[in-house]
Amino acid sequence: MVWKAIFGRFKRESHKTARYPSQLINVEVPPSKKKQDRPIQLVIGLDFGTSFSKVVVGESRVRYAVPFDDYAIGGKAFLLPSALCVLHDTGECHLGTDRSGGTTFDDLKMPLIERDFSDEVKARAAAYLALVLRHTRNWLLEAHRSTYKGRKIEWFVNVGLPTNSFDDEQLISAYLAIARTAWRVSVLPCDVTLQKALALLKQEANHPGKLLQEVAPQDLPYDRIHAFPEFSAQLSGYVRSPRRRDGLHVTVDVGGGTLDVTVFNIHESNGEDSYPIFSCQVHRLGVRYLTAARLQALNKTADQASSPFDDLPPNDGFRERFGITKGQLESADQPFKRSVADAIAGALRYTRQHRYPTAPQWHRPSSNYGEPLPGVFCGGGALADFYADLLRGFEGQEPPFRLRASRLPVPDDLQISGNTPKDYARIAVAYGLSFDPFDIGQIRRMSEIDDDDANSSFSKYEKRYIAKEQT
Amino acid sequence: MTEESGGVPAIEVVSVDDPGRRGRIVGGPRIRTDAAVYRVQWNDGFASWTPAYAFERLDSADEDVFTLLEERRFGRLNDLRRNLTFIQLSGRLANVVYSMDTTNTDFYPFQYKPVLTFLESPSNGILIADEVGLGKTIEAGLIWTELRARYDARRLLVVCPAMLRDKWVLELDSKFGIESSQLNASELARELKRNKQEIHDGRGYVCSLQGLRPPSGWRDTDKRTGRVELARLLEELTESEPTIDLLVIDEAHYLRNPETQSALLGRLLREVSEHVVLLSATPVNNRAGDLYQLLRLVDPDSFYDPKQFPQVLSANEPLIRARNLVLDTESTASQIHEQLQVARQHPLLEDNWQLQGLLSHDLEPEFLSEVANRVELANRIERINLLRHTISRTRKVEVHEWKVVRDAISHFVDLDADGPERNFYVNVTNAVRQYALRQDVSEGFLLSPPQRQMSSCMYAAARSWADRSSLSDVAGLLYEDLGAMDSPSNDVGPLIEFIANEVLPGFDIEALRKHDTKFERFRIIISRYLAEHPNEKLIVFSYFKATLNYLHERLSALNITPQVLHGDVAENKQAAIDRFRDSSDTRVLLTSEIASEGVDLQFCSLLVNYDLPWNPMKIEQRIGRIDRIGQRAEKVLIWNMGYADTIDERIYRRLLEKLNIFEHALGGMEVVLGELINELTSDLMSRELTREQEESRIEQTYIAAETVRQQQDELEANAGHLIAHGGYILERVRAAHEFRRRITELDLKVFVKDYLDRYVSGFEFLEDDSDPLLVAIRLPAEFATRLYGYMRTAHLQGKSRLAGGDTIRCQFLNKIERVTPRLEVISQFHPLIRFISNDLRRRSEAFYPLVAVSVPRLAAPDRTEAAYAFSCKRWSFTGLRADETLQARAIALNGNFQLLDADQSLDLLNAAKVEGSDWLSVAHEVSLDQIGTAFDKCDERLQTDYEIAKRDRTNENRDRVNLQQLTAARHRDRLLATQRELLERYRLTERIRLIPMTQGRIRAIERKFALQLEGLRQQGEMTSAVSDVCCGVIRLIN
Questions:
Q1: B1-B2-B8 Cα angle (round to 5)
Q2: Does residue B29 have a cis bond before it (omega within 30 degrees)?
Q3: Are the C-beta atoms of A70 and A96 separated by less than 8 Å?
Q4: Which end of chain A, N or C, is surrounded by fewer C-beta atoms within 10 Å?
Q5: What is the per-residue pLDDT across B577-592, written as a single tens digit (0 to 9) for each?
Q6: Peptide bond preceding A421: is omega within 30 degrees of 0, i.e. cis?
């Protein structure tokens, strides 16, 4: 099954018509019309994170990282804490945590991942996302008023799905319901409340398509709101950059808690990107666990460590902070290092032995360029010395462990204040979600690819392709 | 519509919001609520699903700027970049310095002054007469780089003194990426016989002047040596097309005596060279006749008659006065006019169109009230100056970057009254004088060596005399010290023999080693220096190998491991210096005069003269190694060592110090000083003189030298008569650099990627993760084959491996580098860039013509308004020279419509190109009416600018054609006269065999010049054209 097909309800005719140039001759391209009279498509890419959410709004020329100045933490304007404050007296909801007289909910996403799809959980998430969407539209139309003045805007919303829940259809369906509700709440001309969110959620569940009259004019059709795996979203920048290589890749995604190692192919089929996944393993080897392992090995107490959401200080900074030598730190890190190396090496070994033994990257390179397996390093922890050094260590190895490690390239069209590669690692998912839904690459699940059969997977893939309307 | 590969037409579309972005539909439609969505393959290489409302058919899109403006269809930064970069890379813009920042040299504006002067030189030649240490080699290299960028220049010949050959080869390679080889006369002859078109692009040949010089009587001799063959070949080639693209003669003052074979070689080479660059620090400071001889080499047709030279100078005088008056804001129009009228009366200027053009317009007081107008007028007058394009001179005092102070300290040690050193000194000095008396020898260069060697190091001198070693090279070095180039034929051996027999028997040589007071002082001062400056290195100069070897031995014993460099060291000079520079352990370089010329030692800031040349020019040369462009220290130290109360000390105190040579660079007084010092040496060494007599004799030399210096200063003061003022050119250089009128790495990358995306399918362009300018490129077979074909036709084989169709790792870097197996550098000279430029020119497709860009205020600090509109055009002029310029006018969008001048406008555009970003909201932030009016005003003004430029260039072209017609006729007459004279000689000497050949040459010369004169006549009428580049708006943001 093609992953994307289950999210939207596209009326897609790509397999029946208009695939070949000869059929394009009679395509109805609208006659020349003044630019002002034409709509413009804006896509809100919404990376709803456990700790922080990030938003990028994209159009054909530029993608804006949306700042949340009033709510942002740690000097990063585009990092919005995933927290909702509900005022006791009015039930009014606000972004952020610093309101008195209210209750703050900062576990908006985790219950969903843990498969708690209760109305309260969904309503809180919907109310939060409604505020995010409202803020996003207001910011854009204020900050870039002149650019879009007088234009009819065709909005799209793409929400990110956790990588390790590719095939959790219940979760996906909950996400879509939350996103649609969030949009509807956000366009209502009143404060955002949990009650309103709850009401619209129920309406969506019970009477899909029947909307409150006040919402209807500004509602988005179903094919404008989608959910995509974060994994494919974060590759959007890379596959559109001159650094793109087709073929086997490995991503090492270092988050606060987890380290995800994914071995996959990048491949174009009928003009669309597809990512068949050979191996995807999630390990509890993220930044937080590294810090804990270090402290334990060094006999230091946890309160000397930083908040799990802070950046891990560089190795030198860490040593200075705890007054230890380079040798001591290296020795403290040794077991953890071994575990991370094993996690990466294990995924590579497994892919080579069982999944894709004939990949060219397993052979010794004949030239010094382009041959090693591209290792894309992403996630908020991507810049920590520990992981960067470790991954670099794979560069000098023999196949199948020989990697060429790199970070996701910062795209030219991203407008972000204080733009650095480090910032980009955190915003890459939202960036990727800001593309037209048709332009976001499709994941093929591990289970769809037979062992030892990766070579023929592409031809099989064609036959197995299931269009969205067939789902 | 374009054709898909299967021959089916695809629909071409253009993005509504990004109108410079074109593409074609390759898939779809998919139907979404309210819209059909198509897959569009855009010409920037990306494909995307795009709703039908976001694009339109290309054939329905309008390209007229005003219609686009009305529809608010503004292009983006990339569209501006494409427009400008294409023209910069495909044209030969007169206002772009192509060599700027492309070579591996530091940027110093004055080094581009000769480049710009040269580009305007109608004779294709220039004499670069910068003072020592300003990097004349680099200036010549920049000229060659500029020629390569603009023309199909393949063959560079450098002629220099033999000792500078290694340096040239190395610098051409390391700084300019030019592969070059050292050739002797017969190898060069063989090379010149090859068809120039077979030579790979940008090949260099380095030859020594001595090695190429024709022997006297070469025409009549039957000997077939390499030098004879070469001279004959050069003479034969005279009537063919120039076979050398650029001839560089280093230390060209060796050619200033027209009677010498060196000068003859210069003339022969000039006749077969398209362009010539002469390098000499000393032409202006000598006799005017010397200068004339060099100018004659630069431009033999204009300076064909020595009697006419003063006429040239006198014609320039009123022009210089007029120019100076223009720059004096107190001057009036009538004063200026009067001087121009005087100039007009000069026979050399009576037909000058430019001068007539200036005189035909009344100079309004209002016009002169604007400083910018005065500067422009001064420049126009300067363009008429007959020497303007012939000489470029920069003095150290003019160079802003030159801030280094010289700090000289003398360390003269006393000789003990009865010690072995005093005895040895007295005995040797007496022996030399006795020898002079007995043998009746008075030449200074024969008498002074023992004296000088003893003053350098007594022990080393005594030891080498006892061994009778290293005699001849001592004489050679000293002869050179006295100002001549060739080694003397006589030998100082008999004198050394005499001393050895007179002084050494019974003398305890080892006592000199034990009581070496000079070394002891040296040891103390350098040990202290090395300890106090742990990161510094120092250089010790001595004339004598024996001294250097002695110092090496003694310093090594002290654990200061020095490196020695002299003629007997097998290692290549430059390699040895590189090794010294890069070594972390070796901090002292002991060197002979071998390192005093042609090498850069500015990484050191202390120089020790362990012995002192008597000729101040030689000292200057030594100091010049560290006191030169690139010296990072604010102060250079010069420590001078010697023995107190000796001839050396008297020369030091009475001549060298008084001439103040340690604090201030001497100008070029080389020859004169050499003669004076030779006479002084002769008198000091061949006569019994008391101390007072010695002092008085040295004083005479000082007075004579000082007189020479004063004359030189006067000449400098009047240099305006000789050399046009270079200030304007220098301003242009600075502007070009500061305002990025050059091609950046990013421009090159965008240029290549853009072209591949538009016109090539199936290529690979993979950016490296670590550096976006590192890209692995693979070209598809069809395109690679076309590139290969182009490279073959253009003789660029071996310059790129991309034509092989393999994946090649490339770096976009606008520096000249050789192809290496590891990494191929793509600079503006790369075959791929040239190929793309040619192809784009052939296609002559326009880029998107309306753009809107934001620029940070910091990038354009002089612009005060919030927004500007601009119009940019390309002008082409074809006459004697074909050139193009990019011209722009920008105007403030503030209601007053205040126009920026042409330079400011172009600067603003370039700032936008380099530092700009998209301005997407433009349509609602500036009134379209206002922009439309602004475009009209810019175009109107550009039209006026164009008419003026056309008029000026037409006049200049006519003047040049007139001058060239005149000089071509003179040239023809000169060549014919020579050949007829030869013919007559052959007839008289009955060398019948040579007569038909000479008659053939005469006919060939007549034919060649008939063609040339006709060509000039046709070029006299200039054609010109103007074409649109783009219009746009630029806003300044904080």
A1: 100
A2: yes
A3: yes
A4: C
A5: 888 988 888 999 999 8
A6: no
What is the rounded distance in angstroms from the CA atom of residue A98 to the CA atom of residue B628?
Answer: 65
In B401-477, the DSSP E strands lie at 405-413
Task: Provide the β-strand partners of residue B918.
Answer: B853
C-alpha–C-alpha distance, residues B200 and B796, integer Å: 6
Distant-in-sequence contacts of B581-586, Cβ < 8 A, 24+ apart: B581/B537, B585/B561, B586/B537, B586/B561, B586/B562
Q: Which of residues 378-407 of A touch B (CB under 8 A)?
A: 404-407
Q: How far apart are CA A146 and CA B918, in angstroms?
A: 14
The two tokens of residue B979 are 């050949």
A residues 210-249 lying closer than 8 A (beta carbon) to B:
221-224, 240-245
| CA separation for the pair B1000, A345 (Å, rounded) | 83
Overall average pLDDT of the B1022-1034 stretch: 92
- The answer to whether the Cβ–Cβ distance between B17 and A271 falls below 8 Å is no
DSSP B963-978: HHHHHHHHHHHHHHHH
Q: State how far the Cα of B359 lies from the Cα of B138, in Å rounded to an integer.
A: 40
Q: Name chain A contacts of B53, Cβ cutoff 8 Å.
A: 30, 38-39
Compute CA distances B736 → B107, B855, B858, B910, whole Å.
12, 19, 18, 10
Pick A61's closest partner by Cβ from B10, B17, B61. Answer: B17
Instruction: Write the CA distances from A461 to A5, A231, A442, A452, A454, integer angstroms.
Output: 14, 20, 12, 15, 10
> Is A80 in a helix, a strand, or coil?
strand
Around Cβ A130, how many Cβ atoms within 10 Å? 27
Within 8 A by CB and 6+ apart from B954, the residues are B353, B879, B1022
Q: Which residue has the tokens 């050739």?
A: B183
Q: Collect all residues with Cβ–Cβ distance below 8 Å to B232 and sequence separation of at least 6.
A: B218, B219
Which chain B residues are Cβ-neighbours of A224 within 8 angstroms? 32-33
Among residues A436, A113, A252, A185, the alpha carbon closest in space to that of B27 is found at A436
Using the beta-carbon criterion (under 8 Å), do B26 and A406 form an inter-chain contact?
no
Q: What is the DSSP string of B751-776?
A: HHHHHHHHH--S-EEEEPSS-TTEEE
**Amino acid in the structure at residue B672:** V
Q: How close A352 comes to chain B (CA, Å)?
A: 25
Buried b (16+ CB within 10 A) or exposed e, B42-78: bbbeebbbbbbbbbbbbeebeeebeebbebbbbbbbb
A74: left (phi over 0), alpha (psi -120 to 50) or beta: left
Per DSSP (E only), the strands in B313-399 are 391-392
State residue B899's pLDDT score. Answer: 93
User: Cα separations (Å) of B753 from A412, B23, B78, B763, B832?
Assistant: 15, 15, 12, 10, 11
pLDDT at B444: 63
As a whole number of angstroms, the distance between CA B73 and CA B266 comes to 61
Per CB-CB distance under 8 Å, the chain A contacts of B54 are: 38, 40-41, 60
Among A380, A234, A224, smallest CA distance to A308 is for A380
Q: What is the pLDDT of residue B484?
A: 43
**pLDDT in the model for residue B668:** 53
CB B205 within 8 A of CB B158: yes
Are the C-beta atoms of B779 and B763 separated by less than 8 Å?
yes
Separation of alpha carbons B879 and B1022, rounded Å: 4
* Residue that is written with structure tokens 């795996």 in the block: A229
Q: Are B722 and B887 in contact (CB under 8 A)?
A: no
Q: Is the pLDDT of residue B971 over 80?
A: no
Pairing of strands B808-812, B824-826: parallel
Packing angle of the helix pair B545-557, B444-456 (nearest 10 deg): 10
For an interface test with A, give the residue of B4, B5, B16 to mutate (most A CBs within 10 A). B16
